[in-house]
Amino acid sequence: MNISRESHLMTDGASWYKNVGKEFASHGKVNHKEMEYARGESTTNTVEGYFSIFKRGMKGIYQHCSEKHLHRYLSEFDFRYSHRIALGVDDAARADKALQGITGKRLMYRQPH
Known about the structure:
The protein is α+β, with helices and mostly antiparallel strands and 113 residues long. The protein has helices at residues 45-62, 70-82, 91-100; strands at residues 8-12, 26-30, 38-39, 42-43. It contains 3 helices and 4 strands; from the N terminus they run E-E-E-E-H-H-H. A hairpin with a 2-residue loop joins strand 3 and strand 4 (42-43). Helix 1 crosses helix 2. The protein is extended and about 55 Å long.
């Protein structure tokens, strides 16, 4: 998810969202203990759905990632989330979109020291 200071965040009251909310223009919270799952059109479905995709990928595919490379993993999951079947993007279209990102780029290896 691309985060900007103008973005608004809706989460549940879990403590791990406390610091994350500071990155956003506003941070609303729903109270699941009181059976509240949405406030107006704002729900926690987006952040929970994104996080569940990330968790499944990290537990099932990668199993570990260092903090140094976390931004790379998150970029990949951003791409997957933004180009998913629910948005009408099938596997072929997703592959085409991914390959557009390599146009005009070369993979360069550092010389061993």
